[in-house]
């Protein structure tokens, strides 16, 4: 390969690399924009809240207008996953937010 051909090849590779970086940067910014919009939409519906990963049984009952007895039946029949902290009658029952939303969306469908 002659020196002039080599220089031309190097120049073309650099131009191509520059164009790829420009396209990638543009695509990355579009992906970031879409991800931000989706996150905002989920937060608007109360799905994503970093402060609140779980709901207490009382919170679930209030949000979905069901009784504690109904939630107890769903738990004991294995229809919804739950987290039990403590033991005995004074234990706290919590539900993962994502599980509750999925459960009630399927239940009401």
TrEMBL record:
Q: Can you say what this protein is called?
A: Helix-turn-helix domain-containing protein
The record's InterPro entries line, in alphabetical order, gives: DNA-bd_dom_put_sf, HTH_17
Question: Which species is this record about?
Answer: Heminiphilus faecis
Q: Which domain of life is it from?
A: Bacteria
Q: Where is the Helix-turn-helix domain?
A: 58-104
Q: Name one Pfam family in it.
A: HTH_17
């Amino acid at each position: 390969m002659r020196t002039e051909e080599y220089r031309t090849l190097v120049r073309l590779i650099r131009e191509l690399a520059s164009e790829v970086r420009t396209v990638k940067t543009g695509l990355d910014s579009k992906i970031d924009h879409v991800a931000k919009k989706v996150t905002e939409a989920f937060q608007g519906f109360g799905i994503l809240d970093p402060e609140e990963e779980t709901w207490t049984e009382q919170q679930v009952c209030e949000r979905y207008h069901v009784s504690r007895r109904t939630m107890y039946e769903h738990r004991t029949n294995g229809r919804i996953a739950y987290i039990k902290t403590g033991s005995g009658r004074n234990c706290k029952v919590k539900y993962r937010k994502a599980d509750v939303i999925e459960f009630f969306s399927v239940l009401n469908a």
